[in-house]
Queue: 2 jobs
Job 1
Amino acid sequence: MPLPRLIPCLDVARGRVVKGVSFVGLRDVGDPVELATFYGALGADELVFLDIAATPDDAQTMLEVVTRVADVLDIPFTVGGGVRSLDDASRIIEAGADRVSINSAALADPDLITRIADRFGAQAVVVAIDAGEGVVHTHGGAVATQVATIPWAVEVASRGAGEILLTSIRHDGHREGFDLELTQAVHDAVTIPVIASGGAGNARHVAEALAVADAALVASIVHENPQGLPGLRAEIQGLGVALRPLRRHHD
Amino acid sequence: MREVVVVDYGAGNTHSVVAALGRLDARGRVTSDPLAIAGADFVILPGVGSARSAMARLNNTGAAASLVERIRSEGSVLGICLGLQLALESSEEDGGVTGLGLIEGTVTRLREGRVPRLGWEVVEPWGEAFYFAHSYAARTPYATASADGVTAVVEHGAFLGVQFHPEKSGPAGLDFLASCLSRV
């Protein structure tokens, strides 16, 4: 079994990394390429970039960010937000991303999951599920759908998704721990890997999430103190989670 | 500057392999031209996409025949992920696909753990972690390293194949690519 992954998430709007609470109140926290290389060097296992503006104008800006990141980053990264078609996915993967994450577009057109997986392999398709009160939400968590969370997770897996990025809307940005019950339920319902997201406030929260998921997404706790990433990893490992062994820096 | 041919079979992500080569002062040339493959100092067969469409593209462009001939004449080829799997005789992917047959062996779907298998695993006996992202794996007598029981490295003659992605495996991956280039 692969080692559990710690994945910093960079919310990007108009070419800058931002962070909000429950999807609102955005603050600028840095340059995506600079942060990506920094996290890559300090032991992130993977990165996720979510284009949270995702307007047509922003798509071009995001592609430029993806290209610049791919030029310098030597760990895998996923790009989500604004991916609505196989062409959108192709452009992002051809610009150098390893995987795309789709959310609303998968709900509107579930076959899109299969089309991207057929072209690029299942590992290239992450389906993001924003969950709250038992149902899937769209529009950054603002709009509740009639789609129940667990059956949707099962469906996306059966349609060829390679991973689920599961965000609990209620927990997101509050730094009081992940929704472990929901994460466990989704993880039990599928045989593809699951990334837990929303609520990381400290190492213990991450360790708890990694006990029920394959990876944990973190944002504020690393963006507020990027230099603290190695310390955070060490703390998580101290709690009994075997993260990947890193090389010692030669410098 | 050394030129490395990165075989293009239309499945996208050759960008990362070329970027990694750039960090090693080598120039990656992305092409499916059989003559370029035949004449290169070093060839990388990268890995993204599905086996059937990759093989169709390799056969249609003449790249497949050129790769077979290159290995026969002891020219180095590195296969990455699907690029390793395509080098074997056949794969169960996509209902059964005939591979390049550079090496004896077959490719079967992973049957244990979560599939796709995504993430870092320690490759033994190397003792370092590399990044894996795959649903199928190689079964061959020429495996020389593994990760949690799954074939990680295959070596036979002038062919070297890795199931992990060295271009996505941080400093360990870059060192691995550097050692491949230094053999040429």
Job 2
Amino acid sequence: MTPPPADPAVELRGITKRFPGTLANDAVDLTVRRGEIHALMGENGAGKSTLMSILYGMTRADAGSVRVDGREADFASPGDAMAAGLGMVHQSFKLFDSLSVAENVVYAAEPRRFGLVDRAAARRRVRVLAEEHGLAVDPDARVGDLPVGLRQRVEILKLLHRGARTLILDEPTAVLTPAEADTLFAVLKSLAGQGRTVILVTHKLREVLEGSDRVTVLRDGRVVARLVTAETSADEIAAAMTGRAVELDRIHAPGTPGDVVLDVSGLTTDGVREASLTVRAGEIVGIAGVAGNGQSELIEALAGLRPTTGGRVSLLDADITHASATERRLKGLAYVPEDRHAVGTAPAASVAENLAMGHHRTSLSSRGLLAPAGVRAHARQLIDRFGIKASAPEVPASALSGGNLQKLLIGRELAHEAPLLLVEQPTRGVDIGAIQNIHDQLIAYRDAGHAVLLVSAELSEIRGLADRVLVMYEGRITASYDKDEADERTLGLAMAGGTSSGAAVTVEAVDRHEQADVD
Amino acid sequence: MNKRMSTDMNDRISGALRSPITFSVLAGVLIGALFLVGTGADPIAAYEAVLTGSLGADGIGSTLTTGTSVLGMALALAIPLRAGLINLGGDGQMVLGGITAAVTGLHSPLPAPLTVVLALLAGMAAGALYAALAALCENHFGVPLLVSSLLLSYPAVSLASYLARYPLKEPGSSLPQTRALPDGVALPAFGDSTVTWGLVLVVLAAAAYWFTDQRTAIGYEIRMTGLNARFSAYAGVERRGLTLKLMSVSGATAGLVGAIGVLSFPYRFVDGSLTAPGYTWTGLTAALLATAAPLGTVVASFFFAVLQVGGLAMERTTEVPRELTQVLQAIVIVFLAARLRFPSRWFNRRKEAV
């Protein structure tokens, strides 16, 4: 590694930013040395994103100074920041799905020949960059056809092509499998080894401990800890983030299963082949699997949002194979979908209106009339019960942090007291404090005698919550384990299509074409 | 507590001032003034003429009559728009409502007052059925509502035109119009003005829309569908059924406007008289301006009625062509579409000074 020069790669001094009602950043100092991987941690709403958008020229600070590579910087736009050698990979990628990898990488900085884009040079450039940094990817592949992990590589290549010396990655592993995350960190380490600087915005402890050199922790807009990774622990970081001691990766005690609530036999739909499973009252059944192996499709079919083409589904002994979403809800089903913003809520509507959905036809209305006072009271009650941080029921749901929006969604669905709860990715993008709260809520719901079907990409979550674990691979349920059999290695192997376990079912590859359709 | 409430009020006022609507209207007025200066006219005199011409004693009746149709059509378009659906077939639904009301009024055997009620209901039914047809095209054949409603509008307008020119044409008249309705088959007017009970009906429709929107479960579902259709589908709101219902109500409202037009002066169906003033498009503009919110739709409709009537008055008194008010309307819409607003620091600075 090159010896760190005197000037840090990024130096923020006294950054203060006030939004109406909140002090997002309060005199924040952040120093990132050249050639290091620096983790910026904090719960949702701690001010990480604000700080990074100030650094990247998307927002202006009210006070404070920014220095990049020792030079005073006052970026008016991300373009300025890029020109100064910064580059950012956003949580939702900014790529053109219909263009090739090479076209995406060189976009807005194309190699030219006689004033036209030189495609051959673009392809060569991508190959060179990819080889140099161990970011193998086919320059001619269409970005829309690539898995998420590779799309992220394209984003990184894009920054490298533009000569970024400091890379900012916002929650880079949120969409990755554990194996993809490991690969990403290997790449980041090699980039740091070449003298580039990486700022990692995240709240995942494991990867920070494994992949970073130093850590800065924000809480409520202030820096609460500056740590050297080698000298700290997960507990110390978690305590700094939340301001209290937290118990990580708790394995909850098993439940006491009762009668069968959900009985699925041979369910087939687009992306799912002959799935059979049962969920009993007082039991959490977890479905593990790498994203895109049919879990979402299975849950959508069970929720009535995707037509069932074969098999039989019964809920509390009633056949609901072809029932509508409303009929299923009336028969006793609640559902927390994976995508909070696009499906689970209407972000532009108020918190109260979001909390009313589903209840508006039952407890909140009489003879079709919906009293605003009742809607507000219902909202206040759920806000209290589930600890949703909202300044008032009238504020738009888009003003809530990710964790609070998820609490809203889960609270609303739990409040139905439905015998069956379908939950997808309950804690994706949610901070530690809230994760614990959500897990406790789900366990309490189970212990109250409800059946829960849980889909999660987080193995630790599945292991901590589920009484039984099913693994989905290429549209089929390929393995089933009891709580004590489901260790991380076994599950990881089954998720990758391995069939080491005696309980495993033979895997038959699902037609590739169909898979592509599903994606 | 008091202090917090006053901050609340400040927030609300600065929110209203900062709203894109305020910005667009002010920008429209300002740019309109530049146009006026450019053509050598006195902007203050011109705007004064618009206001006195539409709101003065001579103009207010005309503004309210125009406002009846504009508000009616604005409601017809706002109702589906609230759920994110756009009904572009207002002209056809309105004209069918008008011609149906005319036929009913001419041939009903009932006494005059009941005939009026029957004609109104028949006009609404005609508009509703025709709009439902557009909804069915979307629901069952996948024709986008935008397209099906717009394209279905033309044959309806042509059919009514044919009826008024041939089978139903007033014998001996050179105009493409039906016979006049029998005596008493008319909406009662207020005093000797041109303002009829049609205004009351339309205002009642606006009140019903407000009530449904704010106080009922289906109104809630409609709003949520407009804000995020996937969210409402996830919760079990059946989109096809909702589309059909909303389009029927929308068409009924458009049909009502047509029927009111026939049951007011000139008490007959005259080809083109319903469509020529462009109520449908002014109504659509008003509904879009208000993002279909009930109260906003009423205010915006009134605003456009003032512009439309005031523009005529301005033309008479100042020789500025009334097209200027259309320019004004267009500027308001363009700015609105751009969602421009005053920068927040203008207001924050003042708030800090408080």
